[in-house]
């Protein structure tokens, strides 16, 4: 995809508003991290970002306005290793198809979203994932049945339930379901 040399009117507003950037050549092509909590970032934000940004390694996005469409835009970010999407209540299991296409993705946090453990069992197919954080209300028996399905689908991945980090605040390791 070739990026236009000049901003469109809408792009110019976006880059001025969020980053005070006046010209496209001032945008770094590679970013390491995007961090935002309780923001109004939504699909339009990621649309404009994906037009100019080619590499982004970590996205920490807690409680924003994104939908599955934003996840689709994130496919344009090469080298995306970490997606922390806690409390993004508009995400659905439709996002899983995009997670599957993110071949560099190693860590995924989808706690407090509409995506369930059962959704992962049915749709997840990204064997490069190493850690997934998700909530579950299922019984222990149901969780163990789903764990065996996921172990076959993503054998090198640790799945953590009802927590968003592999350690607690005291540094004690949280135990994955496998």
Automatic annotation (TrEMBL):
Give the superkingdom in one word. Bacteria
Which InterPro entries does this entry report, sorted A to Z? Answer: LRR_dom_sf
Q: What is this protein called?
A: Leucine-rich repeat domain-containing protein
Taxonomic lineage per UniProt? Bacteria, Pseudomonadati, Bacteroidota, Flavobacteriia, Flavobacteriales
């Amino acid at each position: 995809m070739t990026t236009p040399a000049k901003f469109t009117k809408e792009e110019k507003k976006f880059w001025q508003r969020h980053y005070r950037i006046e010209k496209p050549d001032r945008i770094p092509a590679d970013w390491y991290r995007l961090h935002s909590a309780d923001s109004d970032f939504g699909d339009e934000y990621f649309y404009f970002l994906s037009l100019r940004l080619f590499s982004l390694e970590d996205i920490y996005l807690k409680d924003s306005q994104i939908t599955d469409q934003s996840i689709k835009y994130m496919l344009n970010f090469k080298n995306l290793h970490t997606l922390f999407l806690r409390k993004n209540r508009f995400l659905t299991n439709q996002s899983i198809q995009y997670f599957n296409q993110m071949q560099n993705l190693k860590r995924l946090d989808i706690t407090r979203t509409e995506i369930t453990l059962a959704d992962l069992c049915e749709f997840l197919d990204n064997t490069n994932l190493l850690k997934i954080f998700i909530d579950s209300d299922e019984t222990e028996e149901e969780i163990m049945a789903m764990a065996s399905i996921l172990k076959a689908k993503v054998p090198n991945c640790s799945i953590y339930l009802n927590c968003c980090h592999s350690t607690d605040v005291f540094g004690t390791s949280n135990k994955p379901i496998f």
